[in-house]
Automatic annotation (TrEMBL):
<dbReference type="GO" id="GO:0003995">
    <property type="term" value="F:acyl-CoA dehydrogenase activity"/>
</dbReference>
<dbReference type="GO" id="GO:0005737">
    <property type="term" value="C:cytoplasm"/>
</dbReference>
<dbReference type="GO" id="GO:0033539">
    <property type="term" value="P:fatty acid beta-oxidation using acyl-CoA dehydrogenase"/>
</dbReference>
<protein>
    <submittedName>
        <fullName>Acyl-CoA dehydrogenase</fullName>
    </submittedName>
</protein>
<comment type="similarity">
    <text>Belongs to the acyl-CoA dehydrogenase family.</text>
</comment>
<dbReference type="Pfam" id="PF02770">
    <property type="entry name" value="Acyl-CoA_dh_M"/>
</dbReference>
<dbReference type="InterPro" id="IPR009100">
    <property type="entry name" value="AcylCoA_DH/oxidase_NM_dom_sf"/>
</dbReference>
<feature type="domain" description="Acyl-CoA dehydrogenase/oxidase C-terminal">
    <location>
        <begin position="240"/>
        <end position="387"/>
    </location>
</feature>
<dbReference type="InterPro" id="IPR009075">
    <property type="entry name" value="AcylCo_DH/oxidase_C"/>
</dbReference>
<keyword id="KW-0285">Flavoprotein</keyword>
<dbReference type="InterPro" id="IPR046373">
    <property type="entry name" value="Acyl-CoA_Oxase/DH_mid-dom_sf"/>
</dbReference>
<feature type="domain" description="Acyl-CoA oxidase/dehydrogenase middle">
    <location>
        <begin position="128"/>
        <end position="209"/>
    </location>
</feature>
<dbReference type="InterPro" id="IPR036250">
    <property type="entry name" value="AcylCo_DH-like_C"/>
</dbReference>
<dbReference type="GO" id="GO:0050660">
    <property type="term" value="F:flavin adenine dinucleotide binding"/>
</dbReference>
<dbReference type="InterPro" id="IPR037069">
    <property type="entry name" value="AcylCoA_DH/ox_N_sf"/>
</dbReference>
<dbReference type="InterPro" id="IPR006091">
    <property type="entry name" value="Acyl-CoA_Oxase/DH_mid-dom"/>
</dbReference>
<keyword id="KW-0274">FAD</keyword>
Amino acid sequence: MNFPEISERAQAIGAKVEAFVREVVFPYEQDDRRDHHGAPMDVMVMEMREKARAAGVLTPHVLPDGSHLTQVETAHVLIRSGLSPLGPLACNTNAPDEGNMYLLGHVGSDLLKEKFLKQMLSGQSRSAFFMTEPAELGGAGSDPSMMITTCKKDGNHWVVNGKKAFITGAEGAKVGIVMAKSEDPDSMGGACMFVVDLPDPAIRIDAVPNTIDNSMPGSHATVTIDALRVPADQMLGEAGEGFKYAQIRLSPARLSHCMRWLGACIRAQEIATDYACRRMAFGKTLIDHEGVGFMLAQNKIDIKQAELMVYWCASVLDTGSLGTVESSMAKVAVSEALMRIADNCVQVMGGNGVTDKTIVEQVFREIRAFRIYDGPTEVHKWSLAKKIKRDWRETQAATQEA
């Protein structure tokens, strides 16, 4: 495989995004508001977005005509927005909004695009994706077929009932995409998706837990949905096709996470390298001690391998393939590599690596969470193993027929 060529427009956008993140966003990393999931962080995000709008880098992965950059171009841009944990928030390339914008752009009706997508593209509104459910209720997690939230048609509305868990950004979001299993006979028990205004009294936030990560405003709420009435024209796509739409969203969204967190690990490597080249111990700089220098060398190798995996998977998605297998492989390989990088950076910096003097300790925490969301490593490996077995059976059958 040849390394995909980066277009001139992507290089230009990427350069502007990187300059903005380094010059404008980096100083916000010391702002006391960045550690809050609620209103203070939202105020700071909107403040940064006004500056991003003025700099021409707000929602840079979506072109003025509403079309998206290619996945390869998006990778070039999102890696650079991720150089700070705050960069995606400032540039409106963050999760879950980036994935929700992608889904609405590809499946949404003109009505939904005008009512909901437009406000998201402008950076005025945050969104949430309501799919995961509480494990203690036996609800959907990595296996969406276990969904217990239901929807039923009632005239020109649908009524949704259920509980959701780990809903990123629910608190403070203005747009929600809700996934539920249909009880309507015409949908044959398939899943449906609805786009709704938030807040809504029928969607109650029960708890907002403290979590190891804190880069996403609104945290990861537990939610009760009690007789939510949604107009039929706010269904996303067709009834019963929700599982298919989930894959349309999740395959590129997994890769987008890889892009953003790769950028964060590139930055952590920069900080750890600077520290190791300045800090003296036992008569020489830390980097001259093999134990330290080798960790940074391994990081450089892992960064390059992660970059290659990201661009390879992006090029597959650009062929029009759903890319489920490729995005699973990328999610596993990149998240595990980034975990090694972040851990090494903390170790190189010693005591300073576990303080909030730099973003290194936050990157470590965020990457640890990344290994779980959008499917933990083990689920993706299980899925890949199933495909290996299926391919083997098909090969055996073809051989026997021949």
